[in-house]
Amino acid sequence: MQVRLPAVLLAVSLSACGPGPGGGGALPPPRDACETAAGWGELACGPVVESLAQDEQLHHGLVLVIGRAGVEAGELSVTADGGAPRSWPVVGGRFKALVPLREGENVVLLRDGSSAPARTLRLRLEPHPNPRFIRLVWVQAADGDGGFEGPVGTPRDAESARKRLALGGLLLQSFTAESLFLMGHGRRTFRLELEPDGMPRVETFRSALTLAEARARTGNELWSHFYGELASLPRREDSIDLVLMTMTDWDGATKTATAHTALGGGRLALFGSGTLYSWPETLDGVVPAWTDARDVDTSLLMDDSAYRDRYWANFATGLGACLHELGHTLSLPHPASGRGVMAREFDHVNRLFMLEEPPSARSPGLSPVRPEDEKYWDPSHGHRLRWHAWLRQDGAPTPAGSGPSLRLEGGAFVAESAAGLRHLEYSVDGQSVDFDAFDGDVAPTRVEHPRTELSARLRASSIRVSAIDSQGRISEADLEL
Question: First-to-last CA distance in the chain?
């Protein structure tokens, strides 16, 4: 069951806000009435924010604000902490806006074009307390200039690549926070290294591989090579690398790509740059990029969009695939259910941020995008990420030592952890098929299942079990039931 709204935003009263616009020319209510808990939920007091509470504290710098507007269609104007206003679409009376925050208190003003006053939303951005982080890396060839393939006349140099990857990192961080919140697990996300201006830092790494050498290798060979090379980067014990390769080359005649892959595991999530041309450089470019319904000319450009053949779809698939591979580094397998980011629903990460999806070669389009159209994580993976060490919000280090004990004991499977077990995932043939989750205030230190019952439940005798405890420690075991 999806959990979409914090309780503080529910059950509002129109009378507490005062008379609304219209009705004989009545004026909007006074500001003090709109500042009450009841007035917070009334359109007469301005756009209604449904996804965030007033004075909410956050740990990621690009927040998704979702709510209702006082107009059916048009634009929502958002001004963040005295900066220049940005416009976001209103579709069917609803809006979604990406708002950049700076450290400390932020005052956000939202105007919807109606006669209602501007809504004031106060948010506080605190540094992410987790010592672990995701490092964004742009890998260049030994003899390359750091550029990437794209349409003639558009920026394709290393600086453009770093801007696109930095914004992509913010979107992945925001997607993780909002999707887990909507699944009922709190607004948890990973930390990114930041520059002084608050944008994610992108590490530029020059490989020993030449362009020709990289393009002659398979995806698995490239992953293994870069896994070894990137071990020289600092703070390896606290970092996972999300890497895009400059070397990707598209052959329009044969419709094949070299130096392109999508692989994740261990400390490395690796992806090619063949469709980076479809990613925006700036926040103002997000809506245009995800509404760009132009056909991709595959005689010149790579198309990797689940056969949807449109610019917007390449952005969605490329960003989603990066998150998918990052998920593998966080211990997430493919789900047998076919649901979520770790299945092909990563092709639709755009739907969390957008209210419309343009047509494509596979779809007539979608307007409006409803909450039930949005794609998040498989339910098992949502529970796993709730307790993952890389998403912890308290800054506590993961204790040294082994993780939970997983074993067969007589006629039973037994899992144990003195810290308390939080999630057990059961996989068959490399796919997650079932799970146990313990999200309460007190977690069991021992979970036991009769071998015959577990085998019947999973319809298998050979399984892999992965466990995570309250301290974020993970153990895995292959078992014969």
Answer: 32
